[in-house]
Amino acid sequence: MGNTLTLLKQKKTIQQLPSSSTLLHNSASKQQHQESEALAREAAHLAVSKKASDVTIMNLIGLADMADYFVVCTADSDKHAKAITDFILDELRELGEKPCHVEGLDNANWILLDYFNVIVHIFLKDARQFYNLERVWGDAPITAIEDKHANYPEVQPSVS
User: Fold this and answer.
1) Number of folded domains that form the chain
2) CB atoms within 10 A of CB 120
3) What is the CA radius of gyration of the chain?
């Protein structure tokens, strides 16, 4: 009886341990999420550097299968939206990242850059308010990305 009880305890312990394939999957998944987050942050900072406003990163991990992150930003005009888009495409291409799909360049009201695990949304103000992705994906943690240079006070010339 004592041996059976010991064997049952050992079996239960073994069953509770994750398999090596589960550990490998979790490790690969964690690395993928880290790479996705780095790509999302890079795209967001590129948008900020082209004067996009209200730049946010939405973490969709565990909420959606389509992507790990959304980067959402607002452009002032269709020309501004296209400039932001071109800059992100060019700079990320330099880093070896190519989108699998680009949509919305014709009217520039809502441009979408799909990088598999990261989707960049470049909206005009009215379209962003209408589609309101932050409300649609209300459970997603949101990180606002700010322009570090936007809040610098203007330098006043010294009067001598």
Assistant:
1) 1
2) 28
3) 23
CATH of the domain at 123: 3.30.460.10
Quick one: average pLDDT of 67-71?
96
Q: What is the pTM of this model?
A: 0.76
**26-33: long-range contacts (C-beta < 8 A, 24 or more apart)?**
32/68, 32/117, 33/61, 33/68
Query: Which residues have CB under 8 Å from 123's CB, separation 6+?
Result: 72, 73, 74, 75, 81, 109, 110, 111, 131
Instruction: Render pLDDT for 36-50 as a digit per residue (tens, 0 to 9).
Output: 999 999 999 999 999
* Domain membership flag for residue 1: no
Structural domain of residue 123, as residue ranges? Answer: 30-145
